[in-house]
């Protein structure tokens, strides 16, 4: 397996990674051995505890704690809405509104299976660029619902490229090898120093290469 992650920040209490490849954060019922958590523990030779999750196909920033108490404190920040996150997505087509707040009541597939009720979901969105067939969008979730960004964009009629859970492959004229979603910004209060950490990374390499390729194609055709 090629490099799965890079350490963006580390001290005695937390580690923030840039998740680079399609990989589960924690073991599934299939007990896959090569999870992000297992690979990190192997690298630093110590137990770690994920404070939130990213989908298998989503790349970008994720926080780990070095003990369970730190994990509890950071997870409490998430519950209280103290943590700020931003994502970059490639979404199908063009948006009618180029920026604003999207509010929905949503439920993910697992919740529907277990008879849960839809929950309120809010996100700030801003179209950064429009390329032939898709838009580059910045997304900031204001609530923490499972698969929230994926569901809300699909409901808007602009599913994320590579989406196969809340859209059909036949709905896309442009293919991307995974879900085109990247966690690019993370801001949280350090559980010990109480200082706010603001961490930002560039676009994932596969998304960057894809964007450059599509821009070259547009230039050749113009």
How does this structure look, described?
- The chain is α+β, with helices and mostly antiparallel strands and 222 residues long.
- The mean pLDDT is 92.
- The radius of gyration is 18 Å and the shape is globular.
- It is built from five helices and ten strands.
- It has a single domain, classed as Pseudouridine synthase (2-Layer Sandwich).
Under CATH, the topology can be stated as: Pseudouridine synthase
At the first level of CATH, the class is Alpha Beta
In helices, the fraction of residues equals 10-25%
Number of domains: 1
CATH fourth-tier homologous superfamily: Pseudouridine synthase
Mean pLDDT: 92
Portion in strands: 25-35%
Order of helix and strand elements from N to C terminus: EEHEEHEEHEEHEEH
Distance between the termini: 40 Å
Gross morphology = globular
The secondary-structure class comes to alpha+beta
CATH architecture: 2-Layer Sandwich
Layout: helices, strands, pairs:
Layout: E1 5-10, E2 14-19, H1 36-44, E3 49-50, E4 59-65, H2 68-80, E5 84-92, E6 99-106, H3 109-113, E7 119-131, E8 134-141, H4 148-156, E9 181-189, E10 196-200, H5 205-221
Key structural traits:
24% helix; alpha+beta; 5 helices; 10-stranded mixed beta sheet; Pseudouridine synthase; 222 residues; globular
Short description:
The chain is 24% helix and 33% strand. It is an alpha+beta fold.
């Amino acid at each position: 397996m090629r490099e799965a992650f890079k350490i963006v920040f580390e001290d005695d209490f937390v580690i923030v990674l840039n998740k680079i490849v399609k990989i589960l954060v924690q073991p599934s019922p299939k007990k896959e051995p090569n999870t992000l958590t297992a690979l990190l523990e192997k690298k630093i030779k110590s137990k770690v505890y994920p404070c939130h999750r990213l989908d298998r196909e989503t790349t970008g920033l994720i926080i780990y704690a070095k003990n369970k108490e730190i994990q509890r404190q950071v997870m409490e920040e998430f519950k209280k809405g103290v943590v700020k996150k931003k994502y970059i997505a490639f979404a199908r087509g063009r948006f009618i509104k180029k920026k604003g707040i999207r509010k929905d009541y949503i439920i993910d597939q697992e919740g529907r299976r277990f008879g849960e009720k839809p929950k309120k979901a809010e996100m700030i969105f801003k179209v950064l660029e429009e390329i032939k067939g898709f838009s580059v969008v910045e997304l900031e979730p204001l609530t923490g619902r499972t698969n929230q960004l994926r569901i809300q964009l699909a409901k808007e009629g602009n599913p994320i490229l590579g989406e196969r859970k809340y859209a059909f492959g036949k709905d896309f004229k442009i293919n991307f090898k995974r879900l085109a979603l990247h966690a690019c910004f993370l801001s949280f209060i350090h559980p010990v120093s109480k200082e706010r950490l603001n961490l930002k990374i560039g676009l994932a390499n596969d998304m960057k290469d894809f964007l450059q390729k599509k821009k070259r194609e547009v230039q050749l055709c113009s």
